[in-house]
TrEMBL record, chain A:
It comes from the Eukaryota. It comes from Pichia angusta (Yeast). Keywords: Cytoplasm, Initiation factor, Protein biosynthesis, Repeat, WD repeat. Its main location: cytoplasm. Component of the eukaryotic translation initiation factor 3 (eIF-3) complex. GO terms for biological process: formation of cytoplasmic translation initiation complex. One of its GO terms (cellular component) is eukaryotic translation initiation factor 3 complex, eIF3m. It is found in: Cytoplasm. This is Eukaryotic translation initiation factor 3 subunit I.
Automatic annotation (TrEMBL), chain B:
GO terms for cellular component: eukaryotic 43S preinitiation complex; eukaryotic 48S preinitiation complex; eukaryotic translation initiation factor 3 complex. Component of the eukaryotic translation initiation factor 3 (eIF-3) complex, which is involved in protein synthesis and, together with other initiation factors, stimulates binding of mRNA and methionyl-tRNAi to the 40S ribosome. Residues 650-719 form a coiled coil. This is Eukaryotic translation initiation factor 3 subunit B.
Length: 344, 722
C-alpha cells in the first residue's frame, strides 16, 4: 500500500467522510462547524461549506455532484451547491440530525433525527426539487420510532431503486421500511450494542452494519437475513464494502474516553480488512492516533479514506498487490469460470 | 378450582378430636434433678485398689483445671479399678469445659481419656439408641469416575489445557497450529472464582461459595465436594494426598441438636478456625487451625500457610518464634509432641525432593530436610539453617550480617539450596544481594558465595541442572521508569580442583542489560529458558537456548560449558502471565481480563519461540496447562528413546502432516462452499436488478471524464547566452 495522504483541515474529530459517485472528490465533516471538499487524487482541499452552528454529524452528495446535504447537531440540515459551497436551503428540525442521505436517483433525501430532549427519533423523507433553490419544508413521509429511547434510530440508508429504507437502532436491531408508505416490513437483531454505521454495497442490494459490540454484520436487503458476521476485538464505529475485491473494511477502536488510559498501540486504532465471504481477517492498516470514526471506500475501489477521532482524514490508495490478492479457492474458481467462458 | 367446603365451627365437637400427637410433640418435660454438671471419664488406667487413691488424686488435680471437683466416684471390681469414673463438678459450665479440654487427653503412652457429659451418655445409650448387636454402618455404593489418569494415555502424548473466559471454563487438547479440540463441552458457571489443577493433574478444582469441588476422570465428573464456606485460597500437598483451604469466615458449628449438625464434618474444636487440611481421598477434614493472630489483621495473606515435605510425610506451619511440624502419618500429631523453637523465624522451605547427603548410605532412602532463616538480633547474627527430619539435627548453618531479607530457593532435585540474601550497607541507604549457594550432596555442605552490586529481584534454578538465571537491578534506580535498567544474568558452574577437592564456582557467563525483563521461566526439562517482561502495559518474551549447538559468541566465557543463544524475540503487549507445559515443549502466554482489558486471550509458542497459536478471547481470565505426574521412564529407557529419536520424529511428522491435511482440506471445502453460495446468491440478485432496470452499467454510461491540467511555473531563469 502506498504512503497515505494525510488530509489536515479539520481541527476536531471527524464524523463522516464520503466520496462522490465518480470518486474524484472526497467530502468530510467533523465536530467542527465546517464541511470540507478534497481532491481524492492528491489530497488538495477544494473548498469548505460554512454555515452550520454545531457538530456536523453527516454529509452526502447526490449522484450528479450537483448538491451536497449536511446534517448537524444545531437542529438543521442544509442543502448546498456542490460547485460553489453556497447554502441554498435549510431544513429546521426538532432535534439534532444524525444522518442524511440522498436516494440513489438524487430526487429525495432522508434525515435521521436523534431521540433526545423529549423528542421522538424520526426518519424524515424530503423531495428535492432540482429546478429551484427553495425546497419543500414539510416532509413527504415520516417514520417514527415507536420502541422508546433504548431502541432509537442511529443511522439509516436507501436500498436499491429507493424502494426501502434500512434503519439501524441503538439496541442492535436493524429494521426495513417501505420508502413510499413508511410501513415496517421487518426487523432483526443480531448485535448486542449500539449500531454505529450502515453502508451499502455498490448496487445497494446488501449492506453492512457496525456495532459497539465489536462486530459488524452483513445483511441482504430483500430478506433482511444475516449473511456474514465479522468479529473484531474493539468496538466498531464504521464499516464499508469494497467494490472490485470481495472485502469489507472495518474501523473503530477503544472508546475515546478510555483512550487516555491506554497507550497508542493498545487502543487498536486500525482499519481492518476482512474477506467478505470467508469472514476472515486479512490485514490491518495503522496510522490514526485515536479511534476511527468512519471508513469510506472509493466507488471504483481504488482507494479508501478513514476519518479519525484525532482530526485527520487518511486517504490510502491501494497497491497492485491488494488487487492481486486472492485465496487459492478464489483463484481456482476464477480459472474454472474463465475456462467455461472459453468453452462457450 | 375446587368448590370451597362449607364449614360451620359450631358443628364441631372438640372433645372428639385426638390431640395426643400434638401433645407428644409439644410436651415440656417437668424440670427434674439435673445431671448437667456430671461427666463420665473413660480410658483411665486400671489400677489395683491400693493405688486407687493415688490415681484419684492425679485425676482430681487434672479435672480441677476446669472447675472445682465436688465428688469423684471410681467403681471397683475384683480389687481393681474399672478404668472409668464419674466426676461431679461444681456446675455445668465446668463440665462443658472438661469435655472440651480433657476429651482425648493423653494421660500417658497407653492411656487416653474420653470425657463425656453424663446426660449425653444417657441420651445416646439409654434411649435404645444403641443395640447390643453390632450393626455394620451402611457403606455407600462405590461410584466409579473412570480412570482418573486417562488423559495420560493419549496415543499422541498431547497436552491438555484449561481456558477460562467470562463464566465459561473449557478443557482442550492442544493441537499445534490448528484449533484446539474440546475434551469436554465448555461449561458455564463452573466456578465462582478461578480453576486449579492439582499438582499431578489428577483433579481439576473449582470454587463455589460453599467450598471447593474436585472434578476428574475422562468427562470431568464431580468426584468430591469440600464444604468450607467462603473459601478463597487453595493449596495441595505435593503428592495430592491432602488439600488445604483457607476462608476468611471462621467455621461455625451448628448447635448440638440442629439438623445441620449431622451434615457438618467439623468437630466442635474446629469452631472459629479458618484453615483446614482435608484428606483428598476421603473428603474429610483431618486438621483445622485458627489463623495466628499476627496474620488475622494482615491485608495480603502469605500463601501457602502450610508447607509440605516432598513425600507428604511432614507438614509445617510457621508461628512466632517457632515452627509447628506435624507428622501426617500420625494423625497430624505434633512431631515429638513439641514445637521446633527458632527465635524470630522469618521463613522456611522444605526441600522439594529427598536429599542425598554425603553421609546417606547408598541403599538408604533420601532424607527429609528443611531450611529456615532467622534475622539479626543485638547479640546474634542472622542465620540460615538446614535441618534434617525427624531427627531435628542441624546439618549446616550459615551466618549472615547486615541482612534485610532472605529468600530460600531450592533446586528442584534438592541438590542445591540458594539463599538469596538482600543486604544493606552500614548506612542502610542502599541494598545489594549476595547469593549463598549450598551443595547439599557434598561433605559438610560447602557454601559458595556470589557477591553482587545489584539487588536480585528474581532467581530461578534450572530444573535438573545447576545453572541459574537472575534478574537484578541497581538499588539507585533511574527515576524515569521508561528507561529500562534491569539486568538479566546467566550463571553456570566452573569446576576447579583444589587439593583433590572439587570446588564448584558459579560464574556469570552472560548478561543482558538495559531491559525491562522481570520474569524467568525455565523449561521443566531444563536447557531452554524464557525471559519475559510482564508489566501490564508492555510485554515481551525472549527465548534462550543455553546449550546452543553452534558457534559461541565471543563475549561468553570459555570457562563454562554453556553456550547461550537468543533464539527468538516476541512482543506481546497484553502479557500478564506465562507458563511452560509440563513436557517442556510449549510456552503459553496469556492476557487476563483480571489485570487489564488489553488483547485478552492467549498465545502458544514452541520451545524455540515460534508462534504456534494465537486466539483473542474477549473476557479471557486464565490459562493452565494440565500438570503431569513425574515420568516413570528409567534413565536407560530415556537413552533408548533418544537414540531412536529420528525414527520417532519421522512417524510424528507424518501423522502431523496427515492431520493438518485433513484440517486444510476441510477448510478449503468450507471456503469453496461459501464462495459458491455467495455467487449463486449474487446471480439471483443481479438478475432481479436487471428486471428492474437498475443495473450499474446503465449508470456508468452517463459518466464523462473531464481532465483538468494545471500548470504552475516553479522557477524562471533568464540567462544571457554569449
Amino acid at each position: 500500500m502506498m504512503r497515505p495522504l494525510m488530509l489536515k483541515g479539520h481541527d476536531r474529530s471527524l464524523t463522516q467522510v464520503k466520496f462522490n459517485r465518480e470518486g474524484d472528490l472526497l467530502f468530510s465533516v467533523s465536530k467542527g462547524k465546517e464541511a470540507s471538499v478534497w481532491y481524492s487524487s492528491n489530497g488538495e482541499r477544494l473548498g469548505t461549506f460554512v454555515g452550520h452552528n454545531g457538530t456536523i454529524w453527516s454529509i452526502d452528495i447526490d449522484p450528479e455532484t450537483d448538491y451536497a446535504v449536511t446534517g448537524s447537531a444545531d437542529f438543521t440540515a442544509k442543502l448546498w451547491k456542490a460547485e460553489n459551497g453556497q447554502c441554498i436551503h435549510t431544513w429546521t428540525l426538532e432535534s439534532p440530525v444524525k444522518r442524511v442521505e440522498f436516494s440513489p436517483d438524487g430526487n429525495q433525501v432522508l434525515i435521521v433525527t436523534d431521540q433526545v430532549m423529549g423528542q421522538t427519533g424520526k426518519i424524515k423523507l424530503f423531495d428535492i426539487d432540482h429546478t429551484q433553490n427553495a425546497q419543500p419544508s414539510t416532509p413527504k413521509l415520516e417514520i417514527v420510532n415507536e420502541d422508546g429511547p433504548a431502541s432509537r434510530f442511529t443511522v439509516a440508508g436507501w436500498s436499491y431503486g429507493a424502494f426501502y429504507i434500512l434503519a439501524a437502532h441503538a439496541d442492535g436491531k436493524v429494521s426495513k421500511y417501505d420508502a413510499r408508505t413508511g410501513e415496517l416490513l421487518g426487523s432483526t437483531r443480531n448485535q448486542e450494542m449500539v449500531l454505529t454505521d450502515l453502508q451499502f454495497s455498490p448496487d445497494k442490494t446488501y449492506f453492512i452494519v457496525s456495532s459497539k459490540d465489536k462486530t459488524a454484520c452483513l445483511y441482504d436487503v430483500d430478506r433482511l437475513s444475516l449473511l456474514k458476521r465479522y468479529t473484531a476485538d474493539v468496538p466498531m464505529n464504521s464499516a464499508c464494502i469494497t467494490p472490485v475485491k470481495e472485502f469489507v473494511i472495518l474501523g473503530g477502536g477503544q472508546d475515546a474516553r478510555e483512550v487516555t488510559t491506554t497507550s497508542l498501540s493498545e487502543g487498536k486504532f486500525e482499519s481492518r480488512f476482512y474477506h467478505k465471504i470467508f469472514e476472515e481477517e486479512i490485514g490491518r492498516v495503522k496510522g490514526h492516533f485515536g479511534p476511527l470514526n468512519y471508513v469510506a471506500v472509493h466507488p471504483k475501489g481504488t482507494c479508501y479514506a478513514s476519518g479519525g477521532e484525532d482530526g485527520f482524514v487518511r486517504l490510502h490508495h491501494f497497491h497492485r498487490s491488494y488487487f492481486e490478492f486472492l485465496y487459492d479457492v478464489e483463484k481456482t474458481a476464477q480459472a474454472t469460470q474463465q475456462f467455461e467462458i472459453e468453452a462457450k | 378450582m375446587p368448590e370451597p367446603i362449607a364449614f360451620d365451627e359450631s358443628q364441631v365437637d372438640v372433645s372428639s378430636i385426638d390431640f395426643s400427637d400434638l401433645e407428644a410433640q409439644y410436651h415440656v418435660p417437668e424440670p427434674e434433678h439435673s445431671y448437667e454438671h456430671f461427666v463420665i471419664c473413660d480410658g483411665a488406667p486400671i489400677a489395683p485398689e491400693a493405688k486407687a487413691p493415688v490415681l484419684k488424686k492425679v485425676l482430681t488435680k487434672l479435672f480441677s483445671q476446669c472447675g472445682k471437683v465436688v465428688d469423684m466416684f471410681m467403681p471397683l471390681e475384683n480389687g481393681q479399678t474399672k478404668g472409668y469414673l464419674i466426676i461431679e463438678l461444681e456446675n455445668a459450665a465446668a463440665a462443658d469445659k472438661a469435655v472440651k479440654q480433657l476429651n482425648g487427653k493423653k494421660l500417658d503412652v497407653k492411656h487416653r481419656l474420653a470425657v463425656n457429659k453424663l446426660p449425653d451418655m444417657e441420651k445416646y445409650a439409654l434411649n435404645d439408641n444403641i443395640t447390643e448387636e453390632f450393626r455394620e454402618p451402611a457403606i455407600p455404593e462405590f461410584r466409579s469416575h473412570g480412570y482418573l489418569k486417562s488423559w495420560l494415555l493419549d496415543p499422541n502424548g498431547r497436552e491438555q489445557f484449561m481456558l477460562h473466559h467470562h463464566d465459561t471454563v473449557g478443557v482442550y487438547w492442544y493441537k499445534k497450529n490448528i484449533q484446539p479440540e474440546e475434551v469436554i463441552e465448555p461449561r458455564a458457571h463452573w466456578t465462582s472464582a478461578s480453576m486449579k489443577f492439582s499438582p499431578k493433574g489428577t483433579y481439576l478444582f473449582s470454587f463455589f461459595p460453599g467450598g471447593v469441588q474436585a472434578w476428574g476422570g475422562e468427562k470431568f465428573d464431580r468426584i468430591r465436594r469440600f464444604v468450607h464456606p467462603g473459601v478463597q485460597l487453595l493449596d495441595f500437598s505435593p503428592t495430592e494426598k491432602f488439600l488445604v483451604t483457607l476462608s476468611p469466615e471462621p467455621i461455625v458449628i451448628p448447635p448440638e441438636d440442629h439438623p445441620a449438625r449431622a451434615q457438618c464434618l467439623f468437630s466442635a474444636e474446629s469452631a472459629g478456625h479458618k484453615l483446614v487440611i482435608w484428606d483428598l481421598q476421603t473428603g474429610l477434614p483431618v486438621r483445622t487451625f485458627a489463623l495466628p493472630p499476627n496474620l488475622e489483621k494482615q491485608q495480603s495473606m502469605p500463601w501457602p500457610l502450610i508447607k509440605w515435605s516432598f513425600d507428604d510425610k511432614y507438614c509445617a506451619r510457621m508461628g512466632p518464634d517457632a515452627l509447628a511440624i506435624y507428622d501426617t502419618t500420625q494423625e497430624f500429631a505434633l512431631l515429638d509432641k513439641k514445637l521446633y523453637k527458632a527465635e524470630g523465624i522469618m521463613d522456611f522451605e522444605f526441600a522439594p525432593a529427598g536429599v542425598r547427603l554425603a553421609t546417606t548410605r547408598k541403599n538408604d532412602p533420601p532424607e527429609t530436610v528443611f531450611s529456615f532463616w532467622t534475622p539479626e538480633t543485638p547479640n546474634q547474627s542472622a542465620r540460615v539453617s538446614v535441618v534434617q527430619l525427624p531427627s531435628r539435627q542441624v546439618l549446616r548453618t550459615v551466618n549472615l550480617f547486615n541482612v534485610s531479607d532472605v529468600k530460600l530457593c531450592w533446586q528442584d532435585e534438592a541438590k542445591m539450596l540458594c539463599c538469596k540474601v538482600d543486604r544493606h550497607t552500614k548506612s542502610r541507604k542502599t541494598t545489594f544481594t549476595n547469593l549463598e549457594l549450598l551443595s547439599l550432596g557434598e561433605k559438610d555442605i560447602p557454601v559458595e558465595k556470589v557477591e553482587l552490586k545489584e539487588v536480585v529481584s528474581s532467581f530461578q534454578w534450572e530444573p535438573h541442572g545447576e545453572r541459574f538465571v537472575t534478574v537484578s537491578k541497581l538499588d539507585t534506580p533511574n527515576p524515569n521508569i521508561a528507561v529500562p535498567d534491569n539486568i538479566v544474568s546467566f550463571y553456570d558452574v566452573e569446576e576447579a580442583k583444589v587439593a583433590k577437592q572439587v570446588i564448584k564456582k558459579w560464574l556469570c557467563y552472560k548478561t543482558v542489560t538495559k531491559t525491562h525483563a522481570n520474569q524467568i521461566r525455565w523449561s521443566p526439562k531444563g536447557r531452554f529458558v524464557v525471559v519475559a517482561t510482564v508489566t501490564g502495559a508492555n510485554g515481551d518474551l525472549d527465548f534462550y537456548d543455553s546449550d546452543y549447538d553452534g558457534e559461541k559468541e565471543k563475549e561468553q566465557s570459555d570457562k563454562v560449558k554453556s553456550n547461550l543463544k537468543l533464539l527468538n524475540h516476541h512482543e506481546y503487549k497484553g502479557l500478564t502471565d506465562l507458563a511452560w507445559d509440563p513436557s517442556g515443549r510449549y510456552v503459553a502466554g496469556w492476557s487476563s481480563t483480571w489485570r487489564h482489558k488489553i488483547e485478552n486471550g492467549y498465545r502458544i509458542y514452541d520451545l524455540v519461540g515460534m508462534l504456534r497459536k494465537e486466539e483473542l478471547i474477549d473476557g479471557f481470565k486464565e490459562f493452565e496447562w494440565r500438570p503431569r505426574p513425574p515420568s516413570m521412564l528409567s534413565s536407560n529407557d530415556r537413552k533408548k528413546v533418544r537414540k531412536s529419536l529420528k525414527e520417532y520424529a519421522a512417524q510424528f511428522e507424518e501423522a502431523d502432516a496427515m492431520e493438518a491435511d485433513a484440517e486444510l482440506r476441510e477448510l478449503i471445502l468450507k471456503r469453496k462452499r461459501l464462495l459458491q453460495e455467495w455467487y449463486t446468491w449474487r446471480k439471483e440478485v443481479i438478475a432481479k436488478l436487471k428486471e428492474l432496470h437498475l443495473t450499474q452499467e446503465q449508470a456508468e454510461t452517463r459518466e464523462e471524464v473531464i481532465e483538468e491540467v494545471k500548470e504552475e511555473i516553479l522557477e524562471e531563469k533568464e540567462e544571457v547566452i554569449e
